[in-house]
């Protein structure tokens, strides 16, 4: 979940003006390794990440990273967008593992946090020092040095201290208590399947995962609210696990049901279909009953049903065992981990017709959305968290200035926010481009902006909020009007100006850092 190293290679596909079009082969998501995403489309297919373009129109005042497709995907971002539109509570959180200097890849995440804060969301930024120590073996002295630099750059870019929250994992007791509770809902087999942990994985590394789950849910400790986690796609495993744990921590599971027994989703869809199409009169009855649906299913060829043989067998068994029980739509509140007090309070809170069973309550006069709100309200009132599943947005990785992967361990491949402005200028001037072999060929065929690390700098950073400028650079490149030498000179000058301005602002906010409610020196230093 950290913004540890969002500097990865992006290869090009069809022309796009975002400087990071999709490539064509593999997808590997490893929150601690050198993740490679060379085909962003596969993230939609294999991991269920949704395209951000589909929700863009619902976002108020979208950030330029959203408009240009640099933020390319999301998980369940609509609740956050609705909250921002309606001035309702929402939150944004992301973390930074202080393993080196903050760089232009981190700036993407800084900007995403600050933009959400400016739109009205509660903003949280954290230093993932426990993760840095356990997963990367960083000393506490090193962690403290880098943490200070991250915080200064965040403040210099516009993070509002008075309205935001900063913390470090090792010093947040509320976070650690939450992590302890979440740990009871996760097990080694699950972490092994998600992260590839084995018998050689140390326990502190596993604990750091649960701590990150607590980070992701931390903004909802005071009240449940839509929360977005801006990250690179390599951090998606953390988001998926956090969403699962948020659900497991809930007192009640709310679902649709058709009888007193439980059906899995495929079984429920099948029963719902037959409920809609069957007429009770055909069975000499005025009520549709379980045996009637079972009878109709048995007479229907499997090839005409949208289920497999095992699902059909299971649902037939349940229906026949229920016998003459009526099939009737209802909303179910299933007791997942509720206290006796919460279960009794839920029963009292449900208006209208209801039936109470040992582990669930069926309500007949409330729809699913209302039921979910009621369940959350009862949970919070009786001491539970009522977590909403956290949302996430994903930005593209940046191509290295030298043409391969942008890596913190290769200084020439990336630009640190602490680089001397002249060094930043020189790195851009020396960068690989998407230009042709000769100026003549460039004028004839146009440049390959979608494969150009320098154009990415325009799209991701140097154009700022000026979409027209970013598009003009792109159009002039692919149209053959813009040659690489002049283009790099302009980009290099803009980079030097950005670094000069940013570092001046870092100096200006230095004194603010002394008043931040966060430990700048860890008591664990040794």
TrEMBL record:
Residues 1-31 are annotated as: Disordered. A motif ('KMSKS' region) lies at residues 405-409. The keyword Nucleotide-binding applies. GO terms for biological process: tryptophanyl-tRNA aminoacylation. It is an enzyme of class 6 (ligase). It comes from the Archaea. A motif ('HIGH' region) lies at residues 98-106. InterPro entries: aa-tRNA-synth_Ic, Rossmann-like_a/b/a_fold, Trp-tRNA-ligase, Tryptophan-tRNA-ligase_arc. Its EC number is 6.1.1.2. The keyword Protein biosynthesis applies. Residues 1-12 have a biased composition (Acidic residues). Catalyzes the attachment of tryptophan to tRNA(Trp). This is Tryptophan--tRNA ligase. It comes from Haloarchaeobius amylolyticus.
């Amino acid at each position: 979940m950290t913004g540890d190293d969002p500097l990865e290679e992006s290869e090009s596909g069809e022309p796009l003006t975002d400087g990071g079009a999709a490539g064509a082969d593999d997808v590997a998501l490893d929150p601690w390794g050198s993740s490679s995403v060379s085909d962003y489309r596969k993230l939609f297919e294999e991991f269920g990440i949704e395209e951000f373009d589909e929700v863009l129109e619902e976002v108020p005042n979208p950030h330029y990273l959203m408009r240009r497709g640099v933020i390319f995907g999301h998980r369940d971002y609509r609740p956050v967008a609705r909250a921002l539109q309606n001035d309702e509570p929402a939150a944004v959180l992301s973390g930074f593992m202080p393993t080196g200097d903050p760089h232009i890849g981190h700036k993407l995440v800084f900007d995403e946090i600050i933009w959400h804060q400016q739109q009205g969301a509660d903003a949280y930024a954290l230093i993932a020092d426990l993760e840095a120590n356990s997963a990367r073996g960083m000393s506490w002295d090193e962690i403290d040095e880098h943490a200070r630099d991250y915080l200064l750059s965040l403040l210099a870019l516009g993070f509002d201290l008075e309205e935001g929250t900063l913390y470090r994992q090792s010093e947040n007791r509320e976070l650690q208590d939450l992590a302890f509770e979440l740990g009871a809902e996760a097990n080694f087999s699950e972490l092994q399947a998600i992260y590839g942990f084995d018998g050689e994985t140390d326990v502190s590394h596993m604990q750091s995962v649960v701590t990150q789950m607590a980070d992701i849910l931390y903004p909802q400790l005071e009240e449940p609210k839509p929360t977005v986690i801006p990250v690179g796609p390599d951090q998606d495993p953390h988001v998926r696990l956090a969403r699962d744990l948020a659900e497991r921590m809930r007192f009640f599971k709310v679902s649709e049901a058709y009888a007193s027994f439980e059906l899995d989703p495929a079984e429920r869809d099948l029963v719902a279909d037959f409920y809609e199409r069957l007429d009770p009169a055909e069975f000499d009855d005025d009520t549709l009953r379980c045996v009637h649906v079972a009878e109709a299913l048995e007479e229907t060829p499997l090839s005409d049903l949208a289920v497999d043989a095992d699902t059909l067998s299971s649902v037939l068994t349940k229906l026949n065992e229920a016998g003459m029980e009526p099939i009737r739509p209802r909303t179910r509140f299933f007791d997942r981990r509720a206290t006796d007090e919460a279960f009794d309070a839920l029963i009292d809170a449900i208006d209208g017709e209801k039936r109470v069973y040992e582990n669930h309550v069926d309500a007949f006069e409330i729809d699913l959305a209302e039921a979910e709100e009621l369940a959350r309200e009862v949970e919070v009132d009786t001491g539970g968290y009522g977590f909403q599943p956290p949302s996430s947005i994903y930005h593209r990785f940046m191509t290295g200035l030298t043409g391969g992967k942008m890596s913190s361990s290769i200084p020439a491949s990336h630009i640190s926010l602490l680089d001397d402005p002249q060094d930043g200028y020189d790195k851009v001037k020396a960068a690989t481009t998407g230009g042709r072999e000769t100026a003549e060929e460039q004028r004839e065929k146009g440049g390959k902006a979608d494969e150009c690390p320098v154009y990415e700098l325009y799209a991701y950073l140097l154009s700022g909020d000026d979409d027209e400028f970013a598009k003009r650079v792109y159009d002039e490149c692919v149209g053959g009007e813009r040659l690489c030498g002049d283009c790099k000179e302009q980009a290099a000058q803009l980079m030097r100006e950005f670094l000069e301005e940013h570092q001046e602002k870092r100096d200006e906010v230095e004194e603010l850092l002394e008043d931040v409610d966060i430990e700048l020196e860890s008591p664990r230093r040794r």
